[in-house]
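Recall the central idea of this unit: under ordinary conditions, the amino acid sequence of a chain determines the structure it adopts. In this exercise we apply that idea directly, starting from the sequence alone.
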Amino acid sequence: MTRIKIPKGYESDKDLYTTQLLIKEIKDYFQINLANNLNLKRVSAPLFVSHNSGLNDNLNGYEGPVIFDLPNANNQELEIVHSLAKWKRYALKNYNFKMHEGLYTDMNAIRRCEIPDNTHSFYVDQWDWELIIDESDRNEEFLKKIVNIIYRTLKSLDEYLSTLVPTRRKLLKDQITFITSEELLQRYPDKTPEERERLAVKEFGAIFLMQIGTTLSNGEKHDNRAPDYDDWLLNGDIIVYDEVLDDQLELSSMGIRVNPSRLNEQLKLSGNLERLKYDYHRMLLDGELPLTIGGGIGQSRICMFFLQKAHIGEVQVSYWPDEDRKLLSNKGIYLL
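Accordingly, the structure predicted from this sequence is:
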């Protein structure tokens, strides 16, 4: 089963109680410090949204959401969220947040089209955050400033965990390296996008890979991104080197969000102009929504990385195919 990687000599820590305590420490410490460092306030968030609202995250554009109807609400059709990328911008307006104030929330999602492996699950838990910005902030310099704040928060967590577990070795480099998807292509022209990421994080330790969704000089995209939340010229992923799996691990996807002109341009480029019928898109075009920057930070991914786990199921309760559980159990890897 090639989609599951079994590191040689790896076995799960059988002390699940201590693992659970450390998961709580990680989540409590990181979210409190992230909120303080980015001026965010915690809010409640929806598990599902109306299909007609256009608020759900379309991810790469082809993953279908879990859809259900409500017999006692006129059979209204609803979708389990993929993420809250669009909803957060609407909430900032609705809750009367001010300039350079923001929100964060616990986002729980079901991604039914996901292919489960060491780092991917049908269940997604992340901190979704969003911050109101000025038109003058819509530039690469401001994006890098916010990335550095998030990275310093991760570094602080790394140091905090080393005080809790004195034998633990710190994992993060002092600095994160900024590189665009085009620069990555030029650096490793004969490699696939995944191979480029892996080579880059092995070289630098941690990277912020920028401009994802744009067409590169080879006529391809590094990866697809939905056209109606991130500005493809001002977005990126925080990716670190995972020593346990000897592979790249994406911890966060984020970006400065589209303004009306970039929304129109990206919908045209992606052939999605029909989305302009949705309430969210009309509000954005009419200037009724604030300019923002935001993203998602994987809770289980962070726990997996900092606790040096080989499988995300060691820090998260989800559904796993029976053959996966059997394979992993036979190799000494126990899923929650």
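The chain has nine helices and eleven strands.
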